[in-house]
Amino acid sequence: MTENILLLIIAFILGSIPFGIIVAKIKGVDLKKVGSGNIGATNVLRSLGKWPAALTLFGDILKGTIAVSVGKFFGVGSVYEGLIGLSAILGHNFSVFLGFRGGKGVATSLGVLLIYTPRVALLTLIMWIIIVILTRYSSLGAIVSFGILPVNVALFDPHYQEKLFITILITVLILIRHEDNIRRLIKGTERKIGQRE
């Protein structure tokens, strides 16, 4: 039990690493003061360009994959693997390095899913890409692809009984963090990818 608690804490700290802030600072930019103010790859793309955004995306995904991989290495089982992944996502959303503020957790959630339920992770990514290509709304891609995540887990993961609850929590977190985006999408004021103002 002590080992599992320690892994949860490590995952939270790992998830707290704000790659977007770090990448932007290297470029001499305070990411919280430009674009949407969000620390994720979409705002980095809008504010700094493709390569800084790609680096941010890779770093945020990696946080999730490393966290769950460590849990798998220690053989904690599916439930604790999911909790460790969830802890990394919460770390990203409420970073200890940013006064318990942070991003929306999309990339880190995808990183968690890549190890936790790879087939569903691939499906989620494909759905996100298709929606973004069709609409140019990154937020809508995240809301839809993660919104039906539990359904996809139930349909396509043979061990869904052990993973369904965790994926429901991931979906709830994603939707809560996108509350403002949902409002803007309804009003028609949400910014598209590449749109600066």
Secondary-structure map with pairings?
Elements: H1 2-16, H2 19-26, H3 41-48, H4 50-73, H5 78-93, H6 106-116, H7 118-135, H8 138-147, H9 149-156, H10 160-177, H11 179-187
Helix pairs in contact: 1-4, 1-5, 2-4, 3-4, 4-5, 4-6, 5-6, 5-10, 6-7, 7-8, 7-9, 8-10, 9-10
Would you give an account of this structure?
It contains eleven helices and no strands. With 197 residues, it is mainly alpha-helical. The relative contact order is 0.13.
Helix content: over 70%
Q: What gap, in angstroms, lies between the N and C termini?
A: 49 Å
Shape: globular
Note the run of SSEs as H and E. Answer: HHHHHHHHHHH
How many domains, in number, for the residues?
1
Compute the gyration radius: what is it? 16 Å
Low-confidence stretches: none
Major β-sheet profile? none
Number of helices: 11
Mean pLDDT: 94
Portion in strands: under 5%
Class from helix and strand fractions: mainly alpha
Number of beta-strand segments: 0
